[in-house]
Amino acid sequence: MSWRKEERRAERGYHHGNLKEALLQAALGLIAEKGAAGFTFADAARMAGVSAAAPYRHFRDRDELLSSIAQRGFEQFEARLTAAWDDGRPDTVTAFERVGRAYLAFAREEPAFYNAMFESGLPVDANAALQAASERAFNVIRAAAERLAALAPPGAPRPPAMMMALHIWSMAHGVASLFSRGDAARRKLPMSPDELLEAEVLIYLRGLGFPTERRPQAKSAEPPPVPPEAPSGSGVPPGGPWGKPK
Amino acid sequence: MSWRKEERRAERGYHHGNLKEALLQAALGLIAEKGAAGFTFADAARMAGVSAAAPYRHFRDRDELLSSIAQRGFEQFEARLTAAWDDGRPDTVTAFERVGRAYLAFAREEPAFYNAMFESGLPVDANAALQAASERAFNVIRAAAERLAALAPPGAPRPPAMMMALHIWSMAHGVASLFSRGDAARRKLPMSPDELLEAEVLIYLRGLGFPTERRPQAKSAEPPPVPPEAPSGSGVPPGGPWGKPK
DNA sequence: AGCTCATGTGAACGGCTTTTACATGAGCCG
DNA sequence: CGGCTCATGTAAAAGCCGTTCACATGAGCT
After folding, report:
1. Which residue among A50, A94, A221, A237 is least crowded, i.e. fewest CB within 10 A of its CB?
2. What is the mean pLDDT of residues A175-195?
3. What highest taxon heads this organism's lineage (chains A, B) (predicted)?
4. CATH of the domain at B46
5. What is the reported pLDDT for B213?
6. How many CB atoms within 10 Å of residue A88?
7. Three-class SS of residue A155?
8. Residue B171 contacts residue B243 (beta carbons within 8 Å)
9. Is B30 among the domain residues?
10. What is the pLDDT of residues B25-76, one digit of tens each?
11. Cβ-defined contact of A209 to B189 (cutoff 8 Å)
12. What is the pLDDT of residues A74-93, one digit of tens each?
């Protein structure tokens, strides 16, 4: 197999042709394997079949490659959250929970992106484009929270949508960081991270007085009536959001 | 100032006397400054005034030093959470929220420990002692949740204490990670991380049907009556847990 | 065909981690 | 007190990484 390098060189010639992309892909794989801390610029170059100095033609330094990956991650993240939200269909609460699950799914299925985005220790404001991408992703949650806030039961003071969005974000991020990723997933739990987060969000929404049942809503007209008997029993499946304790 | 090294050597002689401790302290300072990723074994040695090879007499490798710090961190963390809980005085809900604030305070005031414990990327199960220390810290939250669960309003199904503990942990960790530490703290927020977490926990507890007012409770006898008018107004300060929207 | 400039190479520097052979001296034993 | 021993520290070296620099290559334009 020692002809590999020469052959690769012969195949591609002196110039790679698409090195930037190849480096991003290589780095993605390496980060998925060994984490952002273990990832090495030289390794990525080797994997792409170029010398250790070549990457510097495309990235100022290792950090810039990392933050490029983080930026892409935020873009894909935004796309997945947007798809999960699906403009609040079929009803706001259901869609909202789907966003929560999408958050966890992303953390689980794209560990490299998630790592670069949230665990690589690179400063949020290092790159203006990065920060913007991060904000766009958050804005999906924020917009969803706004729709949800608009459905708040009348009478009670309306919760600020921004606060709700931050709360949901912190729940999803907390569960993902602690229980849903790599080594952390090895902590033994009585339930899956998905179930854990779903219950958490349901209880939270109930605390805000929302009906937490899932059924189609009027488009955006009158909010469904809150059962007058007591919000604590409103529409939650029997046993509450956490199922029956055995 | 170039006599410094020789003088230090003269002061301490060939043997340091307390190198292990000195290295831990040096590492703590370095991690606080530059994060666990930027921290360097060689730097710690330099700071302690010894050669780069000396640390290997006390730690198998860099990771072992890191996990020693994480372990100490979990011990101090446990102590602070235990103090905050204060065995549920003056009432369970108040004490519970104090635990939440203690979580954030620790993340803020001991960034080096927090970093080593949660952000250094070292596997949770690398070290049995580390894992045990981590579990002891979590058990404080768990025990508090158990006391809280015992106060659950009668009639409704009782929430599993373990689940509550995990929920609270994820909220505190999410807020700390996203908003309360280093670079992340630079995200602009409409409220302080402490307020954010407090509101989050209050809403969550209300979602479980808990009275979220703060007033002395009977020792552990009958839970205070839930005002029959509506849990959504029960004891929460005017404006709800989030203050008045302006 | 010739030129130019983006892209890739190899060598070199300094720094880090870890290992190895050797140095030192604190504490114990006789 | 004298000598031994072993924990603790040192210097040197190997191997890796990030980064820079002068130089090579060849794709695309004129």
Report:
1. A221
2. 86
3. Bacteria
4. 1.10.10
5. 60
6. 20
7. coil
8. no
9. yes
10. 999 999 999 999 999 999 999 999 999 999 999 999 999 999 999 999 999 9
11. no
12. 999 999 999 999 999 999 99
Residue that terminates a domain, selected from A15, A34, A59: A59
- With respect to residue B15, please indicate whether it lies within any of the assigned structural domains: yes
Query: Do B73 and B55 sit in the same domain of this protein?
Result: no
Cis peptide before B90, with omega less than 30 degrees from 0? Answer: yes
Give the pLDDT confidence of B169-196 residue by residue, as tens digits. Answer: 999 999 999 998 777 777 788 999 999 9
Note whether A158 contacts B190, CB cutoff 8 Å.
Answer: no
Confidence of residue B12 (pLDDT cuts 50, 70, 90): confident
- Name which of B60, B55, B57, B61 is nearest B43 in CA terms: B55
**pLDDT score at A232:** 39
CA distance A69 to chain B (A): 18
pLDDT of residue A123: 85
Judge whether A41 and A121 are in contact, CB under 8 Å. no
* Through-space separation of residue B60 CA and nucleotide D18 C1' in angstroms: 25
Determine, yes or no, domain membership for B157.
yes
Q: Is there contact between A17 and strand D, defined as CB under 7 Å from any strand atom?
A: no
Residues B12, B115, single domain; the answer is: no
CB distance A112 to A31 below 8 Å: yes
Contact A166 B184 (CB under 8 A): no
Domains identified in chain B, total number: 2
Q: How far is the CA of B68 from the C1' of D17 (A)?
A: 26
Alpha helices, H only, B49-127: 62-85, 92-109, 111-114
CA A194 distance to own-chain centroid:
13
Task: Say how far apart CA A21 and CA A213 lie, in whole Å.
Answer: 46
Asked whether residue B33 is domain-assigned, the answer is yes
- For B189, left (φ over 0), alpha (ψ -120 to 50), or beta? beta
Alpha-helix runs per DSSP H in B86-192: 92-109, 111-114, 128-150, 161-179
Structure tokens at A215: 């059924």
- A127 neighbourhood in chain B, CB within 8 Å: none
**Partner A contacted by B232 (CB < 8 A):** yes
Q: Are residues B159 and B93 in the same domain?
A: yes
Relative orientation angle of helices A161-179 and A92-109, to the nearest 10 degrees: 40
